[in-house]
Design goal:
135 residues, Four Helix Bundle (Hemerythrin (Met), subunit A), elongated
């Protein structure tokens, strides 16, 4: 029997691609700002000059993206393994993805309080997936 790719697993794949794209965006900006001599090296000390405000925010957004994936991935896997996939969890995955997409510019441009709001929406969507997997 071939493996079944649910909408939730597809959303997880999209979330991973989004994360990789964010990492690449940050890396490109960091290389342009502080040069490959530092970014390709061992980074034993601080760079000669700091990252710009937006690039430093993107770096923090990358870190936050790791944190959100650490929660979202097992939530999706719990959902699929428990056989609870359905329209509600598909919608929750969509909400998570939209929140993560909105989070990047909200963080990069310092949109207060919107950054925190979209972060919370993504977190609550993840929590709801976990709850749906357990009931």
């Amino acid at each position: 029997m071939p493996p079944v790719v649910t909408a939730e697993l597809l959303a997880l794949g999209v979330a991973l691609i989004l994360h990789i794209a964010l990492m690449c965006l940050f890396a490109l900006r960091a290389n342009l700002e502080i040069g490959p001599g530092y970014t390709l090296g061992p980074r034993d000390g601080a760079p000669k000059h700091p990252l710009s405000v937006v690039t430093a925010r993107l770096q923090r957004a990358v870190n936050n993206s790791f944190e959100s994936l650490i929660l979202f991935a097992p939530a999706v896997l719990m959902n699929v393994v428990s056989g609870q996939s359905g329209p509600i969890t598909t919608a929750l995955c969509g909400i998570f993805l939209v929140a993560r997409i909105a989070y990047i510019p909200a963080y990069a441009f310092g949109l207060t309080p919107w950054r925190s709001l979209v972060w919370a929406i993504g977190l609550f969507a993840t929590l709801a997936i976990v709850i749906a997997s357990l009931i």
